[in-house]
Amino acid sequence: MKKPRITVIGGGTGIPVILRSLRHKDVDITAVVTVADDGGSSGNLRNIMKLTPPGDLRNVLVAMSDMPKLYERVFQYRFDQTDGALAGHPLGNLIIAGISEMQGSTYNAMQLLTKFFHVTGKIYPASETALTLHAVFQDGHEVAGESSISQYDGMIERVYVTNAYNEDVPKASRKVVDAIMNSDMIVLGPGSLYTSILPNLVIPEIRQALIETKADVTYICNIMTQYGETEHFSDADHVAVLNRHLGSDVIDNVLVNVKKVPREYMASNEFDEYLVQVEHDFEGLRREAKTIVSSNFLRLENGGAFHHGYLVAEELMHLVRKKS
Hints:
The chain is 37% helix and 21% strand.
């Protein structure tokens, strides 16, 4: 039987959790990764070298690779804050940046690195040029730059992207649209709604492909609300924002965690951007999506609340097999 084709779209720390488990299933995986990050190591390298930010691509590469743990530790090693110009840079970011320069683009670098690290599946940056994320708030104020958006005290109305270094309309990387159109399922998230997921979806070619594809579009709803982005959001609010930006009722399936995060569990010093658990609005969800899967998808680890990759991957496989 033909392997199901699943394309996962997002960024940040959310999608690597899912990809790490999904790669062990009998499935053809493509990861489409955001390129709007302008903070930290990625932002510094992006500004110096005018390349697409490598950090989210690095984490996805590790998640989809069968590299030994020692290689992973080397690739993910972050230079000490006392190391001058290297301070705070993960070694993997520098490797991706160097190979991007050598190969002429980050897209080409990722194709080489997926072979080098024996990656299960394909990894594409959402665009082949760095993008700038813009947020328009309900009071009309606009903020440019992913790392600056959460610092403004207001509710986001919508986001859009522009090319960081020219006036051209943002375009999807080669093969991204084909991957979406030829998939059996598209998976959005988990991850920061406005700064990890939507920067991909508002690229016009990707948005149009999501509207036109015959694949089911599945959203993995966040477990916690996020400071500066989704304060007071229910699960239905998350899906409504996605549908509003896509301009159509695109979301077919929603995975919702119903397991409670223990009160006072979250380590607020380390996870200070996450506020409280997302509230449930199942009536609202039924208006926004065709199928709602509510189950225990929770993994508690090191003071944080995460999705349990194995449980999510099992449910995704169930949904994709049911459709076929």
